[in-house]
């Protein structure tokens, strides 16, 4: 069955192959940028070399631009490959249904065949796109583990702000609840 589905990629093989390549290149660029930031500190700031800071900074801007380019291209090629795959799969299913004998056509309802050609194909296409997104998400998770201490610190800071906000809201609610409750009695009287 997998071979049958792979045949449906057809003219979109190039996009299907380029999509993971672009994702990998984007991730490589995103991983290199923090290393370049460390290089700015090590070779530029510690040695007080403005030239080195500007040079590495310009390279970081290029890397960020390339990461953006590769991210956009991976989305574009993933979309093209998945929609092309779905189109070819629908066409192959249509041709297969056209070759059914009358006894086979009687076994399947028209609604069932339409569902297979629309919903099932669309779900298969979405699955193909999700594979690309999961691949990209996995690499971001790896990056977070590399910066675990900073992420934990950021979480504690944001969590503290959320706690303070919730405490303020509870304080206001505890003041207003008796007042609002008594207003109901005043209105009734």
How would you characterize the overall build of this protein?
By secondary structure, the chain is mainly α. The chain is built from six helices and no strands. The mean pLDDT is 79.
Overall radius of gyration: 28 Å
- Count of DSSP E strands? 0
Average pLDDT number: 79
Q: How far is it from the N-terminal to the C-terminal residue, by CA?
A: 76 Å
User: How would you sum up the global shape?
Assistant: flat
Describe the largest sheet.
Answer: none
- SS-derived structural category: mainly alpha
Helix content: over 70%
- Which residue ranges are poorly predicted, with pLDDT under 50 across at least 5 consecutive positions? none
Number of helices: 6
Report strand %: under 5%
* Helix/strand order, N-terminal first: HHHHHH
What's the structural blueprint in terms of helices and strands?
Blueprint: H1 2-7, H2 13-45, H3 50-98, H4 102-107, H5 110-146, H6 148-188
Helix pairs in contact: 2-3, 2-5, 3-5
């Amino acid at each position: 069955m997998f071979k049958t589905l792979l045949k449906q990629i057809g003219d979109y093989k190039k996009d299907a192959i380029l999509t993971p390549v672009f994702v990998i290149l984007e991730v490589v660029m995103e991983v290199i940028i923090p290393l370049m930031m460390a290089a700015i500190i090590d070779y530029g700031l510690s040695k007080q070399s403005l030239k080195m800071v500007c040079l590495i900074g310009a390279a970081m801007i290029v890397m960020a631009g390339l990461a953006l380019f590769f991210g956009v291209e991976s989305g574009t090629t993933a979309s093209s490959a998945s929609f092309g795959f779905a189109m070819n799969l629908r066409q192959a299913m249509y041709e297969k249904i056209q070759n059914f004998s009358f006894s086979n056509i009687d076994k399947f309802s028209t609604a069932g065949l339409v569902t297979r050609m629309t919903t099932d194909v669309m779900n298969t296409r979405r699955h193909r796109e999700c594979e690309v997104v999961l691949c990209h998400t996995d690499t971001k998770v790896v990056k977070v583990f590399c910066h675990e201490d900073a992420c934990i610190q950021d979480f504690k800071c944001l969590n503290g702000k959320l706690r303070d906000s919730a405490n303020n809201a509870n304080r206001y609610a505890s003041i207003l609840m008796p007042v609002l409750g008594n207003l109901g009695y005043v209105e009734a009287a």
